Amino acid sequence: MQPAGEPLCFRISAACGNSPPIRIPERSDFRGCGAALYWCCDYLYAGAVTIMKHADCDAGREWGRKAVMTIMRRRSVLRASLGAVATGTLVLPYLANAAATTATVWWMQGFAQEEDVAFKKIVADYERTSGNTIDYSIIPYAPMRQKIVSAMTSGVVPDLFQNNPFEIVALHAWDDKLVDVSDVVETQKEEYTEAALLSTYCYNRTKNRRSFYGVPYTASVSANHIWGSLVQKAGYTVEDIPKTWDAFYDFFKGVQKKLRGQGMRHVYGLGFQVSTNGADPNSTFNTFLIAYGGQNIVTSDGKLHLDDPQVREAAIKALTYPTDAYLWGFVPLIAINWNDADDNNAFHAKQIVMDLDDSISTEVALFNKKDEYDDIVTMGLPLSNAGKPVPSQARTTCGLIPKGAQNVAVAKEFLKYLIEPNVVNEYLKVGLGRNVPCMPSIVKRDPWWFADPHRKAYTTQALLGPTIADYWAFNPAYAQVQNEHVWPAAWGDSMAGMTPQPAAEKAFNRVEEIFSNYPIART
Amino acid sequence: MRSSDRYGLLYQDLYSAKAQGLQIHSLLILIIVFAIFLVNLLIAYPGVVNYDSREQYAQAVTGHFFDWHPPIMAWVWSILRLVADGSGPLFAVHVVCYWLGFGLIALTLSQMRRNKTAWAVVAAGVFPPFLLMNAAIVKDVSMAVAFISAFSVCFFYRTRGLKIPFTTLIIAMGLITYGALVRTNGIFAAVPLFVYLVYPALFWRPIYFIVVSLALIAIWIPAANLFNHRVLRAWPSYTIHSLKWFDLAGIAYFSADESVFGADRSPTAEWVRECYTPVAWDPLYNREICHHELVDYWPQTRTWISAIITHPLAYAEHRLAHFNSELFFIVPRNHTDQRVLLKQHLDGSGHRLPPEPVTWDTITSYLLSNLSAFGFMIGVVILGLCYRSSRPRPSELDDAIGCIAISGVMYTLAYLIVGVATDARYQYWSLIAIFIASIIFLSKREGGSLSRPEWACVGVLAITLIAVVVVHAALGDALAQIG
After folding, report:
1. Could you tell me if A400 and A216 are in contact, meaning their C-beta atoms sit under 8 angstroms apart?
2. Do A497 and B49 touch (CB under 8 A)?
3. Do A496 and B66 touch (CB under 8 A)?
4. Which chain A residues have a beta carbon less than 8 Å from that of B73?
């Protein structure tokens, strides 16, 4: 007799005899016992495992006990084996065909429910058109990152997922873990922005060349989100906001002073993400770096240019301005440990007058609160201090097909369908336009993108204004730089009392060290 | 001799207090203090953070401690962050300690049937410059609330002639140690508290007291350094260099001898005139036209001491000029404003844009700065009077007055030697200590008329107060002088 509550996985594994156990990938529906699950022989216990997929963990254990009780009798084992072999012989060809037309897709949950609705509609339309099946799972942002890590580590992967976080396209391309999707990109290549194409044109160190490893379908940039009512309450109008970089952000310091003078003692002028968590701090640093003239820190050939005095000076300035703003009290105290969503929350609570943040999710989240939605002013990046336009770094979301995917063809076909201009346009529109397409022709043809003040400002910035690709696309070393939060950590040093110069030097050394591990041959 | 025999009158007071149990006044004080504590906590929550405390919070979050600000506060903050992010938990601890201190002193006095004095202590707790300042999350407040709560605990037992229970003794010792660690010069205020905790009779043997104090300070400074660097693993910021730069520039200014900087640095007389101010060392390093002389200049201790020995008068002039600034005595209004120190208007340009002081800050700084010189004079006077009245046999109240007055005065006097900057908050502990000492001292005078020496002291204080008001009015506003 086996003790109650013993995991099924262990029992089945023990019953395998000499058969090598095959590890089943960790899945949400196996949560709790997944890590220890083993599958002895795919035909013998396939039925049991299939049933388990639809049961919760406890029920799975219950089934396991019954299964083991059966297995323990030699005669029943032989009978079951023969039955399974016979059934498998008859059924497997049909199962294989069915699998060939089914792609497993992991898709990020949208910030607004409408985005999920839009995706489901696309899937339904595609399935109707193609006859293929998309077995999708809509997964929240953070868990999906973990699932991707697990999948890519174990090698048991879905057929398609997005680049969450953005830079994994470059990292996995570098390690030759992604399928080349040039043929998919080629179908709409003329439509894409240069930044979108460069974002997925990544280097493969095994093949020593670059190719397209992601299929871009949407882009986002860092924009300024401002409470118009707070600016007005401070005695200004939105038109008073200066156009050049430092003056632009200094303006909100003045707004804070005025508001505090009126008794709003918990309001802060600036919502900079100065923490070492998530993606936003890296975006904020890069935005400041580019604004101060450090755009060429990494060039499209993958080379690092920290030897360029202009880049170094820009990096020091990008470390100085936000940390000064923090230390002088223009940024909330706890911004140093904000997560990606915390600045949005602080903005919604009107704790900060402005927020520099990716996409217009801040606005979209208030779509059903008309007064507040209309109160927010969305603005692109100000001009540089020299009065020149500052390119926005366009972060491109794309579809990735990992090597080891079972149905590459269906995944590619689905992606081709997804990036058809009409399809992707409708998808992003139903998703309230939080992210813009990365094809300018779409927005030029469809006035919807300019019918709302937030969308208009954002679309203009992200698609019609100057944009550049993320640096990790040029060299995945920058992805590691961002994963380690090298620049935000330098902010931390600076805010903790180190002067910006040595904090910057420390960061420069680390960045150079990381880049030395990612040599890129000239291609 | 039993201490209760030694202080006969007090013993009778205490005896009757014990017999009556918790008096109505004591109960009222408890209720009122608790109510004020709650109001204080709710209204000022989560406290106000400034530039320095933001640096310390960043250290608490990143775990990278620097010793520019002694790291103990950041370390404590890093633990309190487990309760909640931000300044709230530390602020709450400060307010608890603050009202524990004032409340326990008032309660003790009330149980001694010194009700007027007890209520005066409660009033001191809500005295605007003290109350407003306790909202600030700064190391000065952290030190002050640690000291006041430690003192109150000792006061509670000492005035009863009771032995302090071991656990309480450890808690008080911990609070005093924290206070001594949280500011580099905190040890000067902590020594009298240590003495009060361990052996209060030492106050009345001045020579012994001075020797013990010097010994404790001499041991403490390297021990605190070891603790900061080895235990808390704080990165050294070499704060001592700011004192060396400040002193060398001051000596060069008053002696007109620029060679004091040593062989490897030769600033011009013009540089010294332009960059030195007795107010603070900051312009030497932070003004653009001054900064270049100090880049990579780390003066040897020998150079520093040699300059002091060579120009003792210039050193004394420099330190006294700084002390005058520290006490906000013969100085114009706003003389510590960054725009004045850096001789430029910062508003509207550059990254380093200091936030305009909010009303709270302005009022607090104004009140504290105007009280500084006056408070120091009161401290000196109370010490003198207390010493005189304690003869031939000091009472336990004399011990308490001596402890807290010496602590306040010593802490201020330390700026004569180690001060490098001027800020109203630096006098926070000194003013609290001296006000409490004064209140307790005056309680001894309840119902009695003043003696001639006491009248003389009142006269000196009145003259000081008038002088402060007149001088400030005459010197005007320093901000106006920079255009």
Report:
1. no
2. no
3. yes
4. none
Instruction: Give chain A positions within 8 Å (CB) of B54.
Output: 326-327, 329, 333, 495
Flag whether pLDDT at A22 surpasses 50: no
Put simply, whether A263 touches B (Cβ < 8 Å) is no
Nearest CA in chain B to A322: B351
Distance, CA of A365 to CA of A359 (rounded, Å): 11
Report the predicted TM-score, pTM, of the whole model to 2 decimal places: 0.82
Residue A257 at interface with chain B, using a CB cutoff of 8 Å: yes
Strand partners, A102: A133
Q: CA-CA distance, B44 to B95, in Å (whole number)?
A: 10
Dump pLDDT digits (tens) for A467-517.
Answer: 999 999 999 999 999 989 999 999 999 999 888 889 999 999 999 999 999
Would you state the pLDDT for residue B355? Answer: 53
Burial B324-355 (b: 16+ CB within 10 A, else e): bbbbbbebbbbbbbeebbbbeeeeeeebebbb
pLDDT digits 0-9 by tens, A71-102 = 445 565 556 556 555 555 554 444 444 455 89
Residues of A in Cβ contact (< 8 Å) with B43: none
A409 pLDDT tier (thresholds 50, 70, 90): very high
Whether residue A477 contacts residue A439, with contact meaning beta carbons closer than 8 Å, is answered with no
What are the boundaries of each domain within chain B? 3-234+359-474
Task: Take residue A22 and report the two structure tokens written for it.
Answer: 């095959």
- Tell me if A337 and B64 make a contact (CB, 8 A cut-off): no
Domains and CATH numbers, chain A: 8-98 (no CATH), 101-220+395-469 (3.40.190.10), 223-358 (3.40.190.10)
Which positions 96-135 of B are in contact with A (Cβ < 8 Å)? Answer: none
Q: Is the pLDDT of residue B15 over 50?
A: no
Average pLDDT over residues A390-417: 95
- Closest chain B C-alpha to A392 CA, distance in angstroms: 22
The region that residue A7 occupies, defined by phi over 0 for left and psi between -120 and 50 for alpha, beta otherwise, is beta
ipTM: 0.85
**Interval B152-173 mean pLDDT:** 94
Tell me which chain B residue has its CA closest to the CA of residue A269: B355
| Gyration radius of chain B over CA positions | 23
CA atoms within 13 A on the CB side of B474: 9
Mean per-residue pLDDT for B8-20?
Answer: 49
Rounded to the nearest angstrom, the minimum Cα separation between B89 and chain A is: 13
